[in-house]
Amino acid sequence: MKTIKKYIYAPFIRKYDKYRNEIELNRILLGKIYVNQLISNNSDLSKKIEDFEFKVFSQFGEDGIIQYLISRVPIQNDVFVEFGVEDYSEANTRFLLQNNNWKGLVIDGSSENIEVIKSRDIYWRHELTAINSFITRENINEVIKSSGISEDIGLLSIDIDGNDYWIWEAINVISPRIVICEYNSILGDKESVSVPYDASFYRTAKHYSNLYFGASLKALCVLAEKKNYQFVGCSSNGVNAFFIRKDVAGNIRSIDCSSGYNKSRTRESRDVNGKLTFISGQARLDVIGEMDVVDIETGKVKKIKDLEQ
Fold it and tell me: How many domains are contained in the chain?
């Protein structure tokens, strides 16, 4: 029966794949037009990085910000590492792969997602390595090292909806020139806090709302300073923060945490049955107010409801 179904549906599958490839090609071509406009703009030093946003394969406007940054930051090795990519349909590095012909490593905790990536033509058309691994601070360096990537690379993107702060803190086998890290805007920009480290952290299991994860923007800015990076801004949707290694930052201006902070208006909260609730603002804080966060500078644990906002 499976063979018969495969035979019957094969023409439709081929037609869908062709249609999908044509759409992706058009998206890439439009992205190239935007890139040319960015590079030709010489009066951009006073703008915020979110002014350069456009989306091709990123979740929001990160593709544009990345293209702007790599046009200003000297990149010696056009190599990226990204984890938390799911099936790579939507990712921060995919436009780099297909438009700029970078090579890199993508990691995801789902073996099914990795198989999907390997089944697509981008996997043989480009120098891409996809690894199935549940990332922890104990294994991240070995996972990266095992792929043959080390030391000075172009870009690192971290989005694992949980231990993001602790993973970036642990990474020492690579020295990316650009770092993108997801922050939890619900935690505000006044205090340096993160969810406590748990090697098995799973967002939905920790709190049904899916709102309890990650670190505050200030925590990432403090860590960036320790690692010799400067904060250059956030995406306008309030999800990703961008950092440049100081020795290659050139004339890209550094900004303080409060000036670059953007609050997320994404309404992804769930009720106890997993149904979207679409809450925003103070209501999100109220839902996870009793959950613990740790101050990464003092080590003290406090409730989210007690954070300065």
Answer: 2
